[in-house]
Amino acid sequence: MATAIIGLGNIGGTVARALARGGEEVVLSATTPDKVTRLAGEIGAGATPAGSKREAVQSADAVVLALWLDPMRAVIEEVSDLLPGKLVIDPSNPISVGADGTITRTLPDGQSAGEVVRGWLPEGTRFAKAFGTLPPDLLSSGANRAPNRAVLFYATDDEATATDVERLIGLAGFDAVQAGRVGNSGRIEVGGDLHAFGGLNGRLVDVEEAETLVRATV
Questions:
Q1: Core-most of 99, 118, 142, 191, by most CB within 10 Å?
Q2: Which among 16, 44, 19 has a CA at the least distance from the CA of 30?
């Protein structure tokens, strides 16, 4: 199995490293070739630099679109014909960060990035919202926590997709807990009750607490 990581910023780079440590083959793509080469060299065996986004998608079973929401639509359009049958994972949050650090929501209240991204994907694409519930530092430091692993929440509409997402979350060093369907993905985006920058106030939770939290507000 191989997973393409498109976008190698803080989240994309962290997810790529985590999956590679867990034994997943990762295919790396970014707009800056030097960044791709550098990260592939850092990861070593198991990481392949791709010459383009299309090359990355073609050689992978799953695709993590580790991009800001605004430019993601153009990337999806570029590789759209390659996506049916593949698993696409969206870790984005509907926010922008100003020069002064001010965070602004970019979607209307009540509309999630997950719902928007799903609407951009071609029919037959398997979709999940995942890997966006923790900031990069917690995503890195919280992996493989003992004695109880920390949880990464995800959302999807498909049982088979859930199984594949849970496999990847496990390889990254976390336990997976489903927060619901894609329509519930606002809960795991910034400001949501299951996001670190929301109801969790920066806390990591284990499976027992996570499952209680999911049930508590359904």
A1: 118
A2: 16
